[in-house]
Amino acid sequence: MMAKNKEPRPPSYAISVVGLSGTEKDKGNCGVGKSCLCNRFVRSKADEYYPEHTSVLSTIDFGGRVVNNDHFLYWGDITQSGEDGIECRIHVIEQTEFIDDQTFLPHRSTNLQPYIKRAAASKLQSAEKLMYICTDQLGLEQDFEQKQMPEGKLSVDGFLLCIDVSQGCNRKFDDQLKFVNNLYIQLSKSKKPIVIAATKCDECVDHYLREVQAFASNKKNLVVVETSARFNVNVETCFTALVQMMDKTRGKPKIIPYLDAYKTQRQLVVTATDKFEKLVQTVRDYHATWKTVSNKLKNHPDYEEYINLEGTKKAKNTFSKHTEQLKQEHIRKRREEYISALPRALNTLLSNLDEIEHLTWSEALKLMEKRPDFQSCFVVLEKTPWDETDHIDKVNDRRIPFDLLTTLEAEKVYQNHVQHLISEKRRVEMKEKFKKTLEKIQFISPGQPWEEVICFVMEDEAFKYITDADSKEVYSRHQREIVEKAKEEFQEMLFEHSELFYDLDLNATPSSDKMSEIHAVLSEEPRYKALQKLAPDRESLLLKHIGFVYHPTKETCLSGQNCMDIKVEQLLANSLLQLDHGRSNLYHDSANIDKVNLFILGKDGLAQELANEIRTQSTDDEYALDGKIYELDLRPVDAKSPYLLTQLWTSAFKPHGCFCVFNSIESLNFIGECIAKIRTEASQIRRDKYMANLPFTLILANQRDSISKNLPILRHQGQQLANKLQCPFVDVPAGTYPRKFNETQIKQALRGVLEAVKHNFDVVSPVPTIKDLSEADLRIVMCAMCGDPFSVDLILSPFLDSHSCSAAQAGQSNSLMLDKIIGEKRRRIQITILSYHSSIGVRKDELVHGYILVYSAKRKASMGMLRAFLSEVQDTIPVQLVAVTDSQADFFENEAIKELMTEGEHIATEITAKFTALYSLSQYHRQTEVFTLFFSDVLEKKSMIESSYMSYSARETTHTSEDVFPRSPRGSSLDYNYPDSEDDTEGPPPYSPIGDDVRLLPTPSDRSKYRLDLEGNEYPIHSTPLNCHDHERNHKVPPPIKPKPLVPKTNVKKLDPNLLKTIEAGIGKNPRKQPSRVPTVPPEDIDQSDNYAEPIDTIFKHKGFADDIYAVPDDSQNRIIKVRNSIVINNQGDEENGYSDRISRSHGERRPSKYKYKSKTLFSKAKSYYRRTHSDASDDEAFTTSKTKRKGRHRGSEEDPLLSPVETWKGGIDNPAITSDQELDDKKVKKKTHKKEEKKKKKTKALNPPIRRNWESNYFGMPLQDLVTLEKPIPLFVEKCVQFIEDTGLCTEGLYRVSGNKTDQDNIQKQFDQDHNISLESMEVTVNAVAGALKAFFADLPDPLIPYSLHQELLETSKILDKTERLHELKEIVKKFHPVNYDVFKYIITHLNRVSQQYKTNFMTADNLSICFWPTLMRPDFENRAFLSTTKIHQSVIETFIQQCQFFFYNGEIVEAPNTVACQPPPSNTVQMVEPMVPLQLPPPLQPQLIQPQLPADPLGII
User: Fold this and answer.
1) Which member of 134, 223, 984, 1455 has the lowest number of beta carbons within 10 Å of its beta carbon?
2) In angstroms, what CA-CA distances link 620 with 616, 624, 724, 1106?
3) pLDDT in tens, 1344-1374
């Protein structure tokens, strides 16, 4: 039962592998592959396959247990499963012949039969024979697996006959085949199955294989299996085939050809390799080791399969290749990083193209090594190359290995870098060129899209070169620039129009009417139109400006940090702190001074004489003065030393003062020169800022020889110099003294020095309490505009450079105090420096004794702001105008600066103000003395100013305004006492509303002739006074007009009690009789139907008044105005303050007004705004004086006679509007009727030339064709005019621009009508009259010289950007003219070209001529808005015709337009709104060495 239940053992077969064996002579250098075939079959794993097996053994190895003295090897056994699943055990025996390594003969064995006999044996026996593994096993059996041959014996069941089909090693295949044939014969005798194994088929020789197959085919049942032990192809198949032959139960073996089997095997290897490589690729760190990775992968089937097929060695090689690839990839990436970083390094170290453009790479490397930034970009390694060092693992070190730069790749990067710099330079150049192209295209406006512009630049070279992105970037930059510039110019324009904004109160809200007025004025400005496409931004800028105007603060100032208030505070904070600190060091303990250091300045021994005199009066250099002893240290100076200041000012000697002694004009001039030198050296070497302001005392020495002759002159000159130096002057005391110096003089001089030292100490002493405002004798406000192109230090230097300057009281960061001697006393002057926008509140709320108004002569806006501010200042307050520029040369070299300085001087002349200039490049004009006269003037008028302020403040408590906006105090007139002064000696200008000689306050006996208004102010009852002058009797006086009732004011403003006391004290010194104020009955209502006060035709003569009265009708304010020596009745309407506050004063007093009514310049500016915004008439009507109604009403500040809506501004007392000539009255009626008829005609009449002649003509106004012939294609009148102009007046300034006499023009045409042969030379007419008559000829033509039909073509052609193409197109259009028109047009353009060639003398460039002539030649329809938008283009067309005359008509070359900007004439208006300004004649800079000691001399001129 047990035997039945046992599993049957698998069958066991012993296969003997035989083949050619023996010595090298028999088998050649190598065997036939028996051992390899056995090895591959028994141990198929690649790691267990040994390709080398030797048969040459030592005797010891041969006798070892593996060989065991036998000529066969036992390879062990292997269990194999067949296709049917039946297992069998196969024992493998290899029959060979071992050779002695000594004798190279077969070893002697127990079986001495030859190999053929032994190989065919079927019984093998060898006790304890071990399994053979490899050659290395021999002698080291214990190190290998030891497995014995079963039971020491085996029975062979079949034979595997090996035949080597490769190219044998020293062996002939025929000999092998012969040996195989003999062997086969022996084998076949055993009756055992035989299979032929064709070995080494991977190196197969085809005909050998065919011979083997032929050999086998001749035998019965002999199978040939093609094998390769190296690639493990059909190895198992040959053994399996033999087993199948031994076991008949198995099927017939399937023999696969070598190639097919090889492909199958290789496919297995490739698949396994791919899978293994994928496993290996999971390793990403090239530092990984095979040992670590193999341990992780050893259990993975793909890993095991690859190891079995290819072996560990190949697997390790594959892994090593992979890690090497990882390393090389890492190095490659690092190299790429370095190469990509190299351009940046080159940009850092070699960015200058001019420096490297012609350098080789090696030269560039040397240059780079010298750069300071070299170490930050590159690293020099000790070992090279860099990719074989550990630097490749320093991933955080981004520096480039320097040895990398020696490669060709790095050199190529350098070459590319140079080329990039060259191309970038070219690109930048082309971008800039394109930018300049855009700048030349005039029609590009701010905010214009790129799409609208691109079509005009398509052909531009620079545009084609750069990329689209670059072109858009350049255009965007260009747009930003022109938008920013346009916004800046718009803002500047707003400041230039300051009069338009600053006529209302602070903290107001502009009404819709005011906004309409603003837009109406600004819309005429090109700078306003420039932002048409950016209307929201423009509106935002305007609103921002308006918001700032009405709510100004330094935080919201449009100039930002350039706000004048901020800069002034910063400068004063620094300067006054340093000033006080310096003085405190200099005058430390000056209150208890007991030693006085003095130096004495004189000439010809005077200094030494005075020093000796002082020492004579002293005891051991101690001088007794006022009960106190002072130690005196005297240093006489009696020479013009080149180091004067160094001698006087040392560490051991710091003078407290200087005695300057003189006894002649020469010595006085010497003193002046020395003082100037001291101050100059002090300012240059900056040893001590206050040395330049050292206290001086002038001492006049007694002249014993010529007292009566020179003493008065010396006294006068010395006093002048002392006044300008702000120092004491010690005169020669009365009486006769034998010595040059008197003790009284010395004591007086010492007291002056001690007082100055004490004063300087008091200024900086922190001990005294803060002084009250009332302690300042004068309060001066200096105004300057934010953003003006000069430093604040410049305008403050006259004060800060003075030793008498100190800080104001705490909390006044924008004020300083000056202590100056004005007149006979030292005065304290508070200077408050403000921006104009901050000064607005001061102007209306605070007491100001004077204004210093600073403006830049380089900036129109600065002058505009000054005008706006000054217009509303009461004319009781003295004003100093200060123009600021670089140097006096600017006045002569720059017309704009000259114009602004002239305007400032002109305004100053009109309002009797002071005018001076400050030059940034001049030191002289920065001295405080430039304002001395102004301070004196302010001090002289102080009482009157305070009285006016007091009177105004009192009225503020009882009256209010009913205007649209809250009214400013500047809108009302002030009462004041006006004392006589030097400034008032001249009479007022003809345009002044009130003269100084007007009696505004009647005497008590004249009170009956006056009425009182609601406020108690008296106004004259209409009458004709006595003392009538005969030449004034045609003047007519209108009836009085009564004012409207007033609403009492409830808001009461209280004044500062301290200020009241001060003002009352000042008034008490000069008491004036105040007029009594009596309430009156409210006047009756006034008929408003007529807006004019009609002149009275008769003359009323009553006592008490002069008959110098002009009636000025007013259509909006219902008031009668007397101009010059007349009485003014001003009853303002609801749009003004609602009451009349003008008070009649007695003779010697005058009514305060505003400066805009005193200055025709200021007034005309304001009037121009009124005219532009409120006139509904044409340009011609705007200048007429007979208008009766206005559609709009001006909502400005207080009205004045000159600001009446009637155009009275045109001529003062000579204006027809304010005369009552009957002829003028008749003209008014005629003009009214004529205007109405013209308006009716305008509605129905087509566009025709204007009718300007009042006579019938058969020549002028006729068609051009009727005036010419083929022989004479040019009208005779045109020829005569042109000939006359070219003969006599081609160089006349303003030719064709300046209008000639209208009567002469008409007379020329009338005379020509009567006689075509008349000579213009004989008529004695001006060139301008002939030019005007010529223009009138063309204007009278029925059709314009340039036909309307060609206007559109000219317009379109003018838009062509390319100049040459545009000119050729224009030339073609000109050819389309009617022949008559063409000839005349050619003639007149040629003439204008000749005129333009004389532009240097006549100032008429082609541009100016085109402006004058294009409306005449083209006859535009100005009522057509579309035509108005192209006027500039039409004008440029005519300009082009004039410039290119030779090209258009004489086949000449195209010429470049001359640059005639510098020759532009000043603008000329047909009607002058302002009297011509007299050019400001500035004196040359004062030079000390040019001052001559002539009498009367001014020693200050040298300072």
Assistant:
1) 1455
2) 9, 11, 36, 78
3) 999 988 988 888 898 898 889 999 999 999 9
